[in-house]
Amino acid sequence: MPYENILQNIRRYVSLTPQEEDAFCALLTVKKIKRRELLLREGDVCTDEYYVNSGCFREYFVDSKGFEHNLYFAIEDWWISDLYSRTQMAPSYCNIVALEDSELVQIGHLTLEKFMEEVPRLERFFRMSYEQSLVNQHLRNLQMLHMTADERYIHFRERYPKLANRIPQKHIATFLGLTPEFFNTVHAKVMRLKRPGI
User: Fold this and answer.
1) Residue 175 domain flag
2) Which of 36, 71, 146, 160 is the residue whose CA sits 20 to 30 A from 138?
């Protein structure tokens, strides 16, 4: 069943009735996307919420000098969207691109909003998900201010071991606020530590 994974994801936080699950699944579509294909392009309005069934994505923006800055990664069992663009119905500042051939479960923002009015428990699920996302972003901001480059990279590898081995190092570098050149030095140093989990 293409929607079993997304239902399991939701069941971790809330319980829907079988009828509610069936009604929710009727609103979903499966979207396949090739490696290097853009899911969202800067300037477009994000109109959907996506759950990653398989594959890997990165969300990034390009600054005025043409440098890419990675903001977010998503792999299996994660959600991805441009929250700002989607909720404000405004042009996105970001791009979302597939790093691998991927499969997504897609639901339109307006469709989801209407369904959450009918099923408040699902609204609770998304509220809890957004809260966790905000907590993670807040912690990341604090780490950028208080951690050394080595500490940030160690924390990244310990917290997201599946990401560390699937994402090119140049993308991890900009996510951590480092140049690829300096990141190479940090990576070599951290790998010499050979700590469990990294």
Assistant:
1) no
2) 36
Q: How many domains does the chain have?
A: 1
* CATH code assigned at 111: 2.60.120.10
Task: Report the predicted TM-score, pTM, of the whole model to 2 decimal places.
Answer: 0.90
Question: What is the token pair recorded at 127?
Answer: 């509220």
Distance between CA 2 and CA 24 in Å, rounded? 13
> Is 171 inside any structural domain?
no
- Percent of the chain exceeding pLDDT 70 equals 97
What digits encode the pLDDT tens for the residues 88-111?
999 999 999 999 999 999 999 999
Domain span at residue 38?
4-119
Residue 70: its H or E element: strand 68-75
Inside any domain, residue 129: no
Please, which contacts does 3-9 make with residues 24 or more away whose CB atoms are closer than 8 Å? 3/28, 3/105, 5/51, 5/53, 5/76, 5/77, 5/105, 6/51, 6/53, 6/105, 9/51, 9/77
DSSP 8-class letter at 126: H
- Tell me what pLDDT residue 97 has: 98
Amino acid at residue number 23: A
Q: Is residue 190 part of a domain?
A: no
